[in-house]
Amino acid sequence: MAGATDHLIIPSMAKTRTYFVCRQCGAMHTKWMGKCTDCDAWDSLEQTFSAADTHRPKVLSAGATALIDTDLPALPVSQIPDMQVPRIATGLVEFDRVIGGGVVPGAAILLGGDPGIGKSTLLLQVGQHLAAQSLRVLYVSSEESAPQTGLRAGRLGASSDNLFIYAQTNVDKIGEQVQKLRPHLCIVDSVQMIYQESNASPPGSVSQLKDCCTNLVYLAKASGTAVCLVGHVTKRGMLAGPKLIEHIVDTVLYFEGDSYHDHRIVRCIKNRFGNTLEVGLFRMTGSGLEVVDDAAALLVQSGAGSAAGSIVTACLQGSRVLPIEIQALTADSALGSARRKATGCDPNRMAMMIAVLEKHSGMRFLDKDVFVNAVGGIKISDPAVDAAVAMAIAGSHARRGLTPGSVVVGEVGLLGEFRPVASLAQRISEICRLGYQHLITGPIHSSADKLAMNSVKGKLSIHICKNIDQALACFS
Ligand code: TYD
Ligand code: MG
Asked: In the CATH hierarchy, which fold is given to the domain comprising 299-472?
């Protein structure tokens, strides 16, 4: 990019010393132990041969576009120069939505996900969209050869001359290539396979990961090139390597989904340039990932919400409302202790809903296994899903369902009362737009919510319930 420096990074000399780093939390120990004393993880210490601080790269001088100007003295906040950097919208609407509207120049983004979920496909498509806007993109492939990546790019229809493919695993050479090409975005796929020559540890080890990531983040900050790193996740769903990679970068995205289904979700868990509430929805097709325009059709099957144990709710995910089907199953427990399993929603809130149903509605779940699932792989943290969870459990237990076309929205308190939910007006208008006819919710207090309620008169009948008992009376 114009204004970037010619010599960005010079790794300082390494001083060889042996120490042990925890693979889980990144804590450093001088001697080996079976258990990390910082995070209590067993068998997670890994021998490393160089002190971390000797590997910090030196940024010689930052160019005009550098985001970190280390020569600037401490200044009062009012005198800090305005650094309004325009975002680069990739054009992949759902990707832009998750990262807060577009890629910020000089930002470091980490994309994690299971192997085979579609990380390389997504980033190649992001690259292709940017290249089509005459922006330069460098795609560094450290796992596949250039012809292999080229073949995949061909399948995805990425043929722009602004998209450069570079098969490389040496981080210093990647830095040189970035200086030469000055791309707007540099994608490193994957960070676990690259290494720094001055570090004796193998690629993928904690110390290599830390060094390579730090190097690339410095490179991004000094050159203004946004860097997108791909990271694999472990069996437990964590990004392989220490949490400290997540601390180094600006944005952490997780690419989730089920390889047996075609839909994929990109979730943001950290974002220095936007909120972390948005999710991006994609569908994997034979020619790459497609943006999902109609989330309702993807997440809620037709006829959902009327069978016993199935309830449709309207969930707030960032700035949009998504209809989500909550399914529950209660079954006689064969074991001594009843099982409780929640997928996609908070298990603690599910336990609370079971207790509320037992206390206020006279149902008994002591000898029942209870399973609750938010269909579609979306993870819900919105408390407005409480009533739907409670009604799905009660519906399964009593073998009763709601009238077709019903939606349940409400936060339930410990006394079984319905509490006000956020953005009810937005939920009402979206439910109406999607063609649902009945809404079961709590008392409406705010004038915006009342206005929304009046505006859907005749199209959506709203049943206002004071508590969970009144909501349960809506079962047909
Ligand atoms: P990939 O992007 O290689 O995953 P990751 O980088 O996360 O390991 O995607 C691999 C899967 O995606 C593979 O199982 C095939 C599937 N796929 C499609 O269905 N359509 C396509 O157009 C492409 C490129 C991949
Ligand atoms: Mg890949």
From this structure: Ribosomal Protein S5; domain 2 (3.30.230)
